[in-house]
Design goal:
126 residues
Length: 126
């Protein structure tokens, strides 16, 4: 019943920007922290960003800190990932994730998240 649907991916040149969106349904969205992960071909799934249920606390991977911004709109059941200064190394499928529990001990661990979207492709060309 829980559904997470990402959108906003696409092809962009290096230095460009994209904003990803994740629409959530089937859960009380405002009660849950949310995360963004990404996975490049042949690579492990990598943590990107995390936001608390209230939006008052965020965590970023070092590789994206200063370039990506996670935010949420609980009234719309959406979480966003604003990406600027994109690099070819950012090319990956980006996944929105929600935890199965309201308490997350390790927000950077994919195992903390029980619900995943289908992913949206981000491709950054040189």
């Amino acid at each position: 019943q829980v559904q997470l649907v990402e959108s906003g991916g696409g092809l962009v040149q290096a230095g460009g920007s994209l904003r990803l969106s994740c629409a959530a349904s089937g859960l009380t969205f405002s009660n849950y922290a949310m995360g963004w992960f990404r996975q490049a071909p042949g690579q492990e799934r990598e943590f990107v960003a995390h936001i608390s249920w209230s939006g008052g606390a965020t965590v970023y991977a070092n590789s994206v800190k200063g370039r990506f911004t996670i935010s949420r709109d609980n009234a719309k059941n959406r979480v966003y990932l604003q990406m600027i200064s994109l690099e070819p190394e950012d090319t990956a499928v980006y996944y929105c994730a929600a935890p199965t529990n309201k308490v997350i001990r390790s927000p950077i661990d994919p195992g903390s998240y029980g619900y995943w979207g289908q992913g949206t492709q981000v491709t950054v060309s040189s």
